Recover the amino acids of this structure.
């Protein structure tokens, strides 16, 4: 698959799953981690301008010359350089969009830090939670991306497992996927909680053995 098609996939994913959540929010304030050559930035900036809002984009690469617009502020630093980022962003945000460094523990760190800054009813969207395009023989066959996306998916589930009363969680699996988190209240998040799976329990082991037995 060529780069243009990959770009179109990413663009369509934003249009189908992110834009409907924010397009009608007045005075929209968005914090974006990862400019990704301006695809998401362009979409968010257009909506912010329509809704009399502002887009704050953060990246370790320098994109400050990408736009010259009063509705846009580029912040050139790591996504965990909290003092630098907080110099520019408002106290409360309508959307945080995370598409920077996708290592699961880093995702959780960034998620937890910026989650309190989202307004009640606001959104936190995390990209790259679907590993299906990266499994063996699929169109993006990549063992590392398969592992890291699956691990991020599991990490988000573990956070949700002990915070069901605090936010809603939806997953979309088109392309590399999204986790869309809707904040329900202003309570502090609880610690993550491992999911107690019965997948490797004795009953399931016996079921697998029984299925393998040839029928007489």
């Amino acid at each position: 698959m060529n780069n243009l098609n990959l770009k179109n996939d990413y663009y369509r994913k934003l249009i189908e799953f992110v834009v409907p959540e924010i397009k009608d929010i007045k005075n929209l304030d968005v914090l974006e981690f990862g400019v990704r050559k301006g695809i998401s930035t362009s979409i968010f900036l257009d909506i912010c301008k329509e809704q009399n809002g502002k887009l704050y984009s953060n990246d370790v690469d320098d994109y400050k010359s990408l736009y010259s617009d009063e509705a846009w502020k580029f912040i050139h630093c790591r996504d965990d350089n909290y003092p630098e980022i907080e110099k520019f962003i408002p106290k409360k945000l309508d959307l945080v969009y995370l598409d920077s460094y996708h290592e699961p523990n880093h995702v959780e760190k960034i998620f937890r830090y910026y989650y309190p800054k989202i307004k009640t009813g606001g959104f936190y969207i995390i990209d790259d939670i679907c590993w299906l395009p990266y499994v063996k023989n699929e169109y993006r066959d990549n063992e590392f991306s398969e592992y890291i996306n699956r691990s991020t998916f599991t990490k988000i589930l573990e956070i949700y497992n002990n915070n069901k009363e605090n936010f809603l969680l939806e997953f979309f699996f088109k392309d590399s996927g999204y986790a869309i988190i809707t904040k329900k209240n202003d309570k502090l998040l609880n610690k993550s909680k491992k999911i107690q799976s019965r997948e490797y329990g004795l009953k399931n082991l016996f079921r697998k053995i029984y299925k393998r037995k040839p029928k007489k």
